[in-house]
Predict the 3D structure of the following.
Amino acid sequence: MIVANGMVYDSSQQEMILSTLETRINETRMKAQLDPEIVISAFDTLSRSIGNDDFPEFSERIHTLHADDAIEHALRMFRRDCLEYKIKAELGSRFFMPKLTGPPLGFPRVQIDPRPLGTLLHIAAGNMDILPAYSVAEGLLTGNINILKLPSVDNGITVALFELLLTIEPRLRDYVYIFDTPSDDIAAIRRMAAVADGIAVWGGEEAVSAVRRFAPTGCRLIEWGHRLGFAYISGYENKEQELTELAEHIMLTKQLLCSSCQVIYLDTSNMDEVADFCKTFLPYLERAAEKYPVEDVGAVAEMTLRRYSDMLECTLNPTKNMDGQVFQGKHCSLTASFDSELELSYMYGNCIVKRLPEEQMMNCLRRSKGYLQTAGLITTASRRERLTELLIRCGVNRVMRAGSMSDAFLGEAHDGEYALRRYTRIVNVAL
Amino acid sequence: MKFRKKLFRTKDPFDTHSTDRIFLEAVRENCAYQMEHCQKYRTILEKLQFSPDMLMQYQDLDKLPFLPTVLFKKHRLFSCPEWKMPIKATSSGTQGRKSRIGLDFGSLLCGLRMVIKIARWRGLLSLRPTHYIILGYKPHKGNDMAVTKTAFGSTFFTPALSRSYALQYENGEYKPDLEMIMDKIQKFAEGSVPVRFMGFPSYTYFLLKKMEERGLRVSLPQHSKIMLGGGWKQFYAEKVDKQTLYTLIKKTLDVDEENIIEFFGAAEHPILYCDCPNHHFHVPAYSRIIIRNVHTLAPVSNGTAGLVNLITPMVKATPILSVMTDDLGVLHDGETCGCGLTSPYLEIIGRVGLRDIKTCAAGAEELLSKVEDEI
């Protein structure tokens, strides 16, 4: 499905729409600049209408896709007060109002005029149902025209949501283009990139480096790459509760999010402590696995098979020491690993436990600098401040409690940046 | 390999009950041979602390270490010098990587016995000359794919009057020529010589769909058969409901369901699985299947879904005696089929995979490419 100028087209119409894309966009940009108020009001109405069940057909559709939770969360984020708060947090108040500089030493004054970047291409990832829509919403809030390439795993929510939004607010029709182009149709994506002033790419290294290769010169790249989350344990405030929360977080997110916990680091250099921790923590993880079972059998099977294959691979290739002691639980496992590298686990309740004494933290985490994002810190009240500071200096952008590693909060920066700022430019006009 | 010989001489190709003992002996014999002749296989077995003597009774079969098919894609695992292998087969290489499997002369002989027995049971052997339409690759000396060999092999069930291939090798690559195939079908339909189709279900479906769109309907001569097969993956990747395909075959070619025969097999498990008249894939005497729990890899009982572990002592040249596919399947009790065979039958329900995975923690493809770099 393709959405262009408020109409829904079949995927086969891609060529026709792409061939006129630049002309359509240029016409829109010649006319006027999108007022953020129109966007806020449209999303607010959308959010309230769905909440009030004004669109039973849509609600039914969401329900059949098992996406109620994602939608409910998005609905809250799309409310007027949330959007206004977001704009204020990220851009400050009255961002789009022109201001005058007042330079010292008699330098001339100029006008500062923040503007939308222009046209944004969003190459979305599929890790959260609502993420593609949210990315476009950010582009709209900053007044941009948005071209969205859907992730291959998209289940139709995004198109359904925008169909509603564009019905509610027809003035947004010329600002949203959605394509379900497959990721290997590079030629088509290249044509979308050609008309863009900025490309927001969500995804793994492959996606990001592919975009780097074809992005036109001068096009701003906004990379929201994959990140690896971890927990750091150095003492407890309430052991029972904190370990339960960590275990439930692992099973609830299935370790699939950037902010999910892949590795649990213990503040020790003693391998016996790692093994002891695994024995202690495994029952917590088992209880959580029972509470939040993994339902995707194919994915679990893939990971089990991969773990087994990796084990054989290590046997045949002893230079690569991936040996670790596996503590197998029911529908989950812990691996006590000898090294301290931050790495991707087998996910779905298969977590890695490693040693990382405080004094080694900088050396170790700097080696993963491109992947740092969230740390879930479990520690004593007296050590919390110092360890938080240390984690931040190592490059971590979110220091959370273990149970809330993936929580989103209003006014949150994303990977150390405010998205809305990246989607705007600052214009200077001589007086 | 005396036990292997014995096993493949079994009269009833679906007797998985009274052959248990001999099957176990043949596996043990094969395992000992592989261990002695394939360094990498020995390393793995030693690591897993397994030795062939541990196969004491039939129930011990599930202790035999299994090698995932991906291992054959990354490593050359051979147990005899390559000159001793008259045939080297590769898998069709989904995702661009192919398994390299060597077949020794003895295993080819076993394979021949197996094919003849199973083909006879399914009524495929006949002296009546036949035109063959192969919806697959035309053999070429650079093409080692097991499917090509199987498709070619299947044209020997009857004397072949002609063989027409949908995929022609031209200037270094394969190109489909469906127009030529459709012309042939129409021509053959006017004659009285039976026609046999052999090919991927997906290609067959595609061709017949095209015929349907053009309003082409023929009535193939009596004794014509549609054989479907070639790689397990194509089977469900296409997602065409079997019944839809059968209906389309009846509509466009006028061939009844009883004359539609499906096969499957894999380069890593070169056992001919042929469907029964109820279109179920019963386990032949030369093979055993263990379905394994997706979390723990422990064996599960019939009726429960899991990973498909295939075992056969057929091949000496490559240690493929126990392989783990990336298929998800269920083994059903044979009696529930109703065709008369009592050996259990396999239903493939899907494939392991992250297709629907929603992860943003470094993607699966990266993990894979990292692994590939180490080859």
About this structure: Chain A touches chain B through 48 residues (CB under 8 Å). Chain A has two domains: 2-226+415-430, 228-404. Residues 271-291 of chain A form the longest helix (21 residues). The two ends of chain A are 47 Å apart (CA to CA).
